[in-house]
Design brief:
By secondary structure, the protein is α+β, with helices and mostly antiparallel strands. Helix content is 20%, strand content 53%.
């Protein structure tokens, strides 16, 4: 028994020695825990520091290039996913007269949110026709086609810094009339059998910020025999840091909208300079526009409460007939159904001020509409003259529908649109730029 007790005591002593030997190992690892905690303590104040916000947009450009020039380039070069070198070379073709900048469209938005911008003419035309007593075609029903440029895009910022782009830019022009037969009661400018020409690219691509992509090489709408249209796209990222939070975040604020008109050439020059996109979108472009004496064509100021929808409008309500009943004796038709279209400026927003009070998350849909006279769809013979009988209004609209974050007291570039010419068609030589600013 004494031998067993002695053996048991020896085992306990060895176990104690082993435990004592292991204690320093724990102490060696112990500093790791305080170190991690220390890092966490430093990270916590960082959460109250500057927060980076990002707006993501897309620019789409349609450039008509002489067919021979384009075919020559294809014979000597390989088309690559990164079209930035090609886009820069095309700029030299424009300067040399071998290419023409036909259209540009841009809209800013948020990652994961759909954004749309349109510059379109609301073109009404006969859809179904019957024969009137004089043998002319009479519009029995009508339809509408948006003629101009529409860009719809879904952008997603990825973890590696690239931008996934899902989009469907569309460009539509009016190509004249294609009547099935000659009719005596028709004058130049009448809309009977319109021909609409369309360029549309529906695709998904992944691009790096400031990287151009070539998404189409199409037949030119204006010069189909001699030119091809190259469709380029590029992401535009606007990043900014939220300034220190206010002790009492305001629940109200002011949003200012400014529409500025400048030449398409000047806008393209600014776009191609290679400036920092964040500075360009966040105040840089409007300074360039002011320096070039660009024209401010409209301003709007909205006083809002955070979290509440706000809408201001100054409009004229245009009523127009959408259905007509023709007379049996060949005289003027009778309108029997009507619709109303608002003309002017309408601004609708959903604003939410950040907890710190220095950033505004904004949903917006500002609409700038104008009236450009009436199109003749049908005429009747009266006192020896073919007089207008069925007419439809010409409306033109510039509108972005998007969401973005605004820093305090910085005019942010939201969209590039095309204004109408003196006949209500898209004017490719000019651009209307929309800037939005948050203040309180």
């Amino acid at each position: 028994m004494k031998a067993i007790s002695a053996l048991f005591l020896a085992v306990l002593l060895l176990a104690g020695t082993s435990l004592d030997a292991q204690e320093p190992a724990k102490e060696a690892n112990a500093p790791a825990d305080p170190f991690v905690k220390e890092k966490e303590k430093k990270a916590a104040p960082g959460g109250n520091g500057p927060t980076t916000h990002t707006n993501a947009g897309l620019v789409v450009q349609y450039i008509d290039v002489k067919r021979e020039r384009w075919q020559h380039w294809l014979a000597e070069n390989e088309v690559k996913l990164d079209a930035t070198p090609l886009r820069k070379e095309v700029e030299t073709w424009v300067a040399a007269g071998d290419a023409k900048l036909s259209e540009s469209s841009l809209v800013m938005g948020k990652s994961g949110q759909r954004a749309t911008v349109e510059s379109v003419r609301f073109q009404i035309y006969p859809h179904e026709q019957v024969t009137d007593p004089s043998g002319q075609s009479f519009p029995d029903s009508i339809e509408c086609r948006n003629v101009g440029t529409t860009t719809e895009v879904d952008l997603v910022l990825t973890s590696d810094g690239s931008v996934e782009v899902n989009f469907a830019p569309e460009r539509v022009t009016y190509g004249g009339e294609t009547p099935p037969r000659e009719e005596s009661g028709v004058r130049d400018g009448d809309i009977r059998y319109p021909l609409f020409l369309t360029q549309k690219a529906t695709t998904q691509v992944t691009l790096d910020p400031q990287q151009w992509g070539l998404v189409g090489s199409e037949t030119s709408l204006e010069m189909p025999e001699s030119h091809q249209t190259l469709i380029f796209v590029r992401p535009v990222l606007h990043r900014f840091e939220e300034s220190a939070a206010n002790e009492e975040a305001p629940s109200q604020g002011i949003v200012s909208f400014t529409w500025v008109e400048m030449s398409h050439k000047d806008f393209n020059t600014s776009l191609m300079k290679g400036n920092d996109p964040s500075s360009w979108v966040g105040g840089g472009l409007i300074k360039e526009a002011e320096a070039s004496k660009a024209e401010v064509i409209e301003r709007r100021v909205l006083f809002f409460r955070s979290g509440q929808r706000c809408k201001n409008e100054t409009i004229s309500e245009h009523r127009y007939a959408t259905e007509f009943v023709q007379s049996e004796d060949g005289s003027f038709a009778t309108p029997v159904a009507w619709e109303t279209r608002n003309v002017g400026v309408t601004v609708e927003i959903d604003p939410v001020v950040s907890p710190g009070g220095n950033v505004l998350d904004l949903n917006l849909a500002p609409e700038f509409s104008s009236f450009w006279g009436r199109d003749v769809l049908h005429r009747v013979l009266s006192d020896g003259e073919w007089e207008p009988n069925v007419t439809m209004p010409r409306f033109y609209t510039m509108q972005p529908i998007t969401q973005l974050s605004l820093p305090l007291n910085v005019p942010v570039f939201v969209a590039a649109m095309s204004p109408p010419d003196d006949k209500g068609w898209t004017d490719p030589s000019r651009k209307v730029l929309l800037f939005v600013e948050f203040s309180h």
